[in-house]
Amino acid sequence: MKWIILPAVLAPPAFADICPPVADHSARLGEIIVDLGQARGQGEAQVLSQQLWSLWTDAPDAKAQALLDEGMRKRSSFDFLGARDTLDALVEYCPDYAEGYNQRAFASYLRQDFEAALIDLDKALSIMPNHIAALSGKGLTLMGLGRHDEAQDALRAAVEMNPWLQERALLVEPPDIEL
């Protein structure tokens, strides 16, 4: 009788720490963006923006949510390096979760590490192209890098999705939007 020995590394072990798939909120995000374009006032737009944030910050599982919340807490308390470390762990764990990159970019931006912020913003936008906050953050980051024409393009794209963004004041030629 012959024995065939198969390698034990055919699949990851059942106990491997793997991020589950990110929830698909694309339909609801699209609806909110349409509603933002039709919002009749700043108050209405603010409510819709909060709905976007609740979807963007809906992490794939409890571990990812804890990392996101901790990274945002550290950032809010001006521990930008600690936030970056925590958010590094989040994007390593959940590489397909756009908000991990967006929040890490924000921590980098606040440290004026614009190059690192831009890399993360581009990654967030490759995952979620209509992430208005990442797009406006990209515009601000490009301004920090002195790349003003590109910054205007990014800000204009963000304001096109949300005409109520405060960053609209940074546009050289504000859009013709009746507010």
SSE order and pairing:
Elements: H1 26-38, H2 42-56, H3 62-76, H4 80-93, H5 98-110, H6 114-127, H7 132-144, H8 148-161
Brief overview, please?
Pfam families: TPR_19. The chain has about 180 residues and is mostly helical.
CATH structural architecture of the domain at 62-169: Alpha Horseshoe
Helix % is 55-70%
Q: Report low-confidence residues grouped into runs of 5 or more.
A: 5-15
The level 1 CATH classification of the domain at 62-169 is: Mainly Alpha
Order of H and E elements? HHHHHHHH
Could you give a short account of the major beta sheet? none
Give structural notes:
This protein is mainly α. It has a domain at 62-169: Tetratricopeptide repeat domain (Serine Threonine Protein Phosphatase 5, Tetratricopeptide repeat, Alpha Horseshoe). It is 62% helix and 0% strand. The protein is built from 8 helices and no strands. The model is unreliable at 5-15 (pLDDT under 50). Keywords: Repeat, TPR repeat. TPR repeats lie at residues 98-131. This is Tetratricopeptide repeat protein.
